[in-house]
Design goal:
This protein is α+β, with helices and mostly antiparallel strands. It has one domain. The chain has 2 helices and 6 strands, in the order H-E-E-E-H-E-E-E. This is Lipoprotein.
């Protein structure tokens, strides 16, 4: 009886968890759309916890977490005049990115 009950409750638990994952994914995709200025072609959250985003205009991002996405928006305004990025990578000690105008930067964390 316990096995049957757990089998019946498992899908409900999975649906509840997936909803919060979907909501978080929507936030990331929305932020990435603002940063790349094009539609998001693919979005994935890897086993390592990093977010990988490829935009329709072939720009791509490798992002550690949502806090980094928020900082990317600041960098976009300060360095790229709000035009977005062609590429963005978060390294151990700095951020490396290329603005849509082909200017590249290494900014310390």
């Amino acid at each position: 009886m316990k096995n049957l009950l757990s089998i019946l409750l498992l899908p409900l638990f999975a649906v509840g968890c997936s909803k919060s994952v979907d909501e978080r994914a929507d936030e990331y995709v929305e932020a990435s759309f603002t940063l790349c200025g094009a539609k998001v072609q693919s979005y994935s959250l890897g086993d390592d916890g990093k977010i990988r985003i490829v935009c329709e205009n072939d720009s791509y991002f490798l992002v550690k977490d949502q806090g980094t996405l928020a900082y990317m928006q600041e960098l976009n305004g300060a360095y790229c005049q709000g035009k977005g990025f062609n590429a963005f990578h978060e390294r151990k000690s700095y951020y490396t990115f290329i603005c849509s105008g082909d200017k590249s930067f290494n900014v310390p964390k």
